[in-house]
Design brief:
434 Repressor (Amino-terminal Domain), Cro/C1-type_HTH (chains A, B), DNA-binding (chains A, B), DNA-binding, homodimer, 82 residues
Chain lengths: 82, 82
DNA sequence: CTTTTTTTATGACTATAGTCCGTAGACCAT
DNA sequence: ATGGTCTACGGACTATAGTCATAAAAAAAG
């Protein structure tokens, strides 16, 4: 599974956990509404600054969001070298 | 202090701690030699994929590199709202 | 059902991440 | 001096992050 897809899924979880719409999250993070949608579907790769902005809007630590991606990628069985 | 400058400084620390040259790190991460230099000087903002690639080359967890940036930004006295 | 809110999708666009060429300076050894 | 290794920096370039306007599908809600 690619990094951006995993990140997108966790971004969505965080957002829904906060009860925010994509539009509200976009507004808080000074990002475009449609871009949040692209991120959640794994169609874009956020820069470090964007990650920090999103995390702040979600009252989360950027490192925690990254850690979740990291852990899911580590436990992902697909595409491991034999 | 900006996110990218802080990240750049920590990237350099990690790299020097591993005893790697910019060129070696670039090769391991499939990035350009000059781009590593730009990153370390805070002239570029890496995407999440680039962060993961760099971390892997440095035998570090991406979330740990982010956490160091996070902590330094949190303890940075400059530009805090009164 | 109808209405409203939310999300997906497209296409055209601007800003910037990341590449690739080179040059110059610093440092360390011959 | 000269050669090697390393990093800073330049400009020109390609790829993609992120914006904007809009339409339409999907979900909630009434």
């Amino acid at each position: 599974m690619s990094i951006e897809v995993v990140f997108g899924r966790h971004l969505r979880k965080f957002r829904e956990g906060k009860g925010l719409s994509q539009e509200e999250l976009a507004f808080r993070s000074n990002l475009d509404r449609t871009y949040i949608s692209l991120l959640e579907r794994g169609k874009r790769r956020p820069t470090i600054n964007t990650i920090f902005a999103l995390a702040k809007s979600l009252d989360a630590a950027p490192s925690d969001m990254i850690k979740m991606v990291e852990l899911e990628l580590a436990t992902d069985i697909t595409g491991r070298e034999p």
